[in-house]
Amino acid sequence: MNAHSLTVNLEISTSVPEKSEVNNPLFNSPWMALAESLREGVMVISRHVKPIYMNQQAKEISQKLSIGDRHLTILPLEISEICYRLIRYGTNYQQTIVTECLTVEQQTIRIRASWVNLGAADANLPASENQQIVIFLENRNQILQEDLQFEQQKYQLTDREIEIWSLLRQEYSYQDIAEKLHISLNTVKTHVKNIYAKKRWHQLKDSYEE
């Protein structure tokens, strides 16, 4: 199965619900409009590990995770595994499971999964049967780049400053940054000092304007 056939499967599973799901209140609930506007991927997975809903971001991340997978299914392996972990713990398990994985493009994807009842309950079923698995998918690299672009514009950071700030956001030490960028440690410290000065100035300016 190639990447194109995976895309088709995802579209079928999310855009054309099974007959038993057509009248599911989940598909008419207000939260779905909100889910489509999030920059995180959102999935709703049934207790049988079948996708009920995915927003557009979840589809894109799922395709990234599935590239190079020799055992392609409707759900990427990493997501299926975290669903099966929740199922083994049982629907009374109240904790959120969090894990991270890498795509073939070396992008870090954070996966958070938990049981939830989204108000689509069937009164004829036991309470446990009305639980779904909600998955949140966060492309850490993409979100970081969006945040950096916003901060560069807001705080008027130079290209070098935003380069250093990006590495700081990724938890590089000052010494690591100096070695990576082939600059002195004192130069790194000077840039960091300027970054924080600009941020403080804008924060004070914003507080005066309130």
Automatic annotation (TrEMBL):
CDD domains assigned: LuxR_C_like
Any Pfam family matching the protein: GerE
Cross-referenced SMART domains: HTH_LUXR (SM00421)
InterPro entries: Sig_transdc_resp-reg_C-effctor, Tscrpt_reg_LuxR_C, WH-like_DNA-bd_sf
Residue ranges constituting the HTH luxR-type domain according to the UniProt record: 151-210
Coiled coil feature spans: 134-161
Top-rank taxon, per record: Bacteria
UniProt cross-references to PROSITE patterns, sorted A to Z: HTH_LUXR_2 (PS50043)
Keywords annotated in UniProt: Coiled coil, DNA-binding, Transcription, Transcription regulation
Chain ranges passing through the membrane: none
PANTHER family tied to this protein: DNA-BINDING TRANSCRIPTIONAL ACTIVATOR DEVR_DOSR (PTHR44688), HTH LUXR-TYPE DOMAIN-CONTAINING PROTEIN (PTHR44688:SF25)
UniProt name for this protein: Helix-turn-helix transcriptional regulator
Protein species of origin: Floridaenema aerugineum BLCC-F46
Lineage: Bacteria, Bacillati, Cyanobacteriota, Cyanophyceae, Oscillatoriophycideae
